[in-house]
Model the fold of this input.
Amino acid sequence: MSPNPAPQLDRPARQTAPASAARRAPVDARPRARFDTSRWVVLGVLVIASVYFLAPVWWLLVSATKTSSDLFSGEAFWFGHFAFFANVRTLFTEQGGIYSTWLLNSALYAVGGATVSTLISAMAGYALSKYPFRGRELTFNVVLAAVLVPQPLLAVPLYLMFSQVHLVNTYWAVLLPSMVSPFGVYLARIYAGASVPDELLEAGRIDGAGELRIFFTISMRVMAPALVTIFLFQFVAIWTNYLLPVLMLANDRLQPVTEGIVGWQAQRAIGPSAVPYNIVITAAMVSAIPLVVLFLSLQRYWRSGLTAGSVK
Amino acid sequence: MTTAPLGRAATATPPVAARRPPAHVRRRARTAALFLAPFLLLFAAMYLAPIGYTLYQSLFRMHRDGLGLSAPTQVFAGPANYTTALGDPAFRGSLLRVLLIGAVQVPAMLGLALGLALLLDARSTLFKRFFRLAFFLPYALPGVVGAIMWSYLVAPGLSPITAAAHHLGLHLDLTSNSMLAPTIGNMLTWGWTGYNMLILYSALQAVPAELSEAATMDGCSAWGIAWRIKIPLVRPALVLTTVFSIIGTAQLYNEPAILHNVAPNLSSTYTPIYAAYDAVNANNFNAAAAESVILALLAFVLSFGFLKLVQRRGAAL
Done:
């Protein structure tokens, strides 16, 4: 269940972290309050909540290191016979090494789709912000409304349309829909409006630069933080997408990793050729690594995208 | 094709020409069109066309002759697909199920998210950074990975939760019919609380610290500050997260579909999207289209109804 990739509307992205941190710094720097009971209660509640959120992930990590038989016996939340590397080796040789194909496909869809969508969203958002023309607000509002359209509802008609033009079961079937990000246009417009000064564009024009050159050499640079955010959100949305590929791609050599793993899970480890549970778990864990790395390394951009607008 | 030149001539008549914008403005408009073109083309093809296609298809049906020998033909059906969908107990059941899951899960999740955000926002809370990361981690995992993980965590034979209950002498099957909805609600809560918490937390961070300080000096308790100052000020963020949660619940698919792989008793019409896909698999796209439109309308009415409701209440305050 995902609302659209990055669902914040409504208000300009205040580049949140630095500003608010600066404002609150003096407060936090004050001598801390007396260590009283309420503080312990708060800590207790937060610890319980983090156990709820972390324990399943811990279970996933531990289970990825187990042999199939250890998975069904012994301590669920602690290590058994450490078989992680054996599992990874099996994972990458299962079905002729198809798992690496899936990972590459996911990378192709996510990098390709996110790159194109970032570029065209930036151009569109910039145009909607910096060029007055008739129908501008209407165009923007239509794009904005599209952020609210549940994606799964588009997947079925897209499948039928694509099957008529023989795009089903090709890379394009997933790439083309992934190139459109109404949220990206929204974010680009807000950011361009807030951060690209009109005087800068006028200066470029007086110097004789064409509109395209101004955009690519000046405006895009100023908009860089927003572009990273748009790319990140679209990358994650494509990497985690399951519904669209499951409709579009029956050929398992074209599938992204999400669809591939669910296909393995659906075998329910029944039959001699079925993929065992511990390998499915290892596959799920490995496929999450790129996203967790992206998330940890680009936290600032996550937050600026998530909070684009909810701060009033 | 004689109309085009005529039309152009008409717009070029003197009074209009006199109001023509100066050259540089027209040039800018052309540049804007150039910048917008790639996005708008793809947007029209990938968003507007499917919506139009769905609306169109929902009004037709495939007509097969009695023997089924010749190819079926498409005939206009009017509202027939809609009445069929609404008359179908399985589809109605799926709508009701999603409404019930949403009615319980969304308030529970947002309440939890708001509570955690308030605790993290409190000045004296320790290890804020760690807790924030811990709560947000589920959102950083792909939804499919989270769903597969939970499917095993509840699967009979594998589930440590069932095993623990068994240890206590309880019989607990989290994939039994009566437990499916709570299990799915838990999967959603686990996956999305951190995301909503972060939005609310960021909104709380923007609340001026002076307000809380002044209230503290006036003898207001931490509870009172949260209730009277902070929550009203993050109302827009709460409204936003609610609307997105409503839309998210309406499109529920991944979790039940993946849970189905360990719980075969989960029906293939469990949620409306699931039911629509089921109709597609049965080669009945017209039915699927009508079901999609009904679901989209329901999501629209609920989210906008909620917005109107809070706006009116906001005006009354």
User: Anything to note?
Assistant: Confidence is low (pLDDT under 50) at residues 1-33 of chain A. Chain A has two domains: 36-82, 88-306. Residues 98-130 of chain A form the longest helix (33 residues). Chain A touches chain B through 103 residues (CB under 8 Å).
